[in-house]
């Protein structure tokens, strides 16, 4: 009997998701839980337990599983299939994740940088379907992503292509501590950067704002979601912040468009889900600043798969390798 299922895991710094997925991309069973941050053994145990529970609920059998695809927010040593460094996962340095999962599940395992898994998902079943040149920009707590170029996933020499948060947009920020720790574009336009900018403007402005009522005694309580919510209520300061963030995102995307000449740029992630407020300023900046032919040709669209892009892309990685993931 031909394998009927693919197992998938999308590991995040705060949340981990697992699923049983059909070869056509239907999510048959899915689980989500806070990521166990007690070190590699604990998280590996959590992933295996979640996958086994998913398979049980899907009434599946390991004998019918083609393989396991895993998206990891980490530097991966492809030759040795080791997680070299995962900055958002405490203790994850030189962890033989591939071999541990193979030994425990007796299945082929494909590991991908999480941005690469996500763009595979959108290319397979989301906003990138039918295109040969796709860029996925994922804006959340940080900024990452992945690229499909000429119909193939582009990984880069160290399997880190798509780490767009490190784009340097302003040389005056080169010595900025936050920019050096987080990545330059990321420090300006990801969730914490949005909250930081709103706090700065609130401190400088004497104008009334919905945000003042929400945070009462501490600017540190501000979140990007609060800023988006206030903008939807017409708060002038919040609208100004969001417009600025759209322009900053547009500058980074304009650079990507000029460099890669994609057919479509997909915007996703937690911040990207606010696309109705961001897409138009992004498009305006790209149209006026990117290489003119590329700027006119590219489509800039929101993600269709949302937070499931990484899971579906991890499953697609298994399908692309036919279950034989040792040659990845």
Structural topology:
Blueprint: E1 5-11, E2 15-22, E3 27-34, H1 40-57, E4 65-72, E5 75-77, E6 82-85, E7 93-95, H2 97-105, E8 109-113, H3 114-125, E9 134-139, E10 143-149, E11 152-154, H4 177-182, H5 184-189, H6 191-204, H7 210-215, H8 224-232, H9 236-260, E12 264-268, H10 269-272, H11 275-289, H12 292-297, E13 299-302, H13 309-320
Parallel strand pairs: 1-4, 4-8, 9-12, 12-13
Antiparallel strand pairs: 1-2, 2-3, 5-6, 6-7, 9-10, 10-11
Helix pairs in contact: 3-13, 6-8, 6-9, 8-9, 9-11
Q: Key features?
A:
5-stranded mixed sheet, 2 domains, 13 helices, globular, Nucleotidyltransferase, domain 5, alpha/beta, 328 residues
Descriptive notes:
The protein has helices spanning 40-57, 97-105, 114-125, 177-182, 184-189, 191-204, 210-215, 224-232, 236-260, 269-272, 275-289, 292-297, 309-320; strands at residues 5-11, 15-22, 27-34, 65-72, 75-77, 82-85, 93-95, 109-113, 134-139, 143-149, 152-154, 264-268, 299-302. It is α/β, with parallel strands linked by helices. The chain folds into two domains: 5-113, ATPase, nucleotide binding domain (Nucleotidyltransferase, domain 5); 127-304, Nucleotidyltransferase, domain 5 (2-Layer Sandwich), CATH 3.30.420.40. Strand 6 (82-85) and strand 7 form a beta hairpin. Helix 6 crosses helix 9 (236-260).
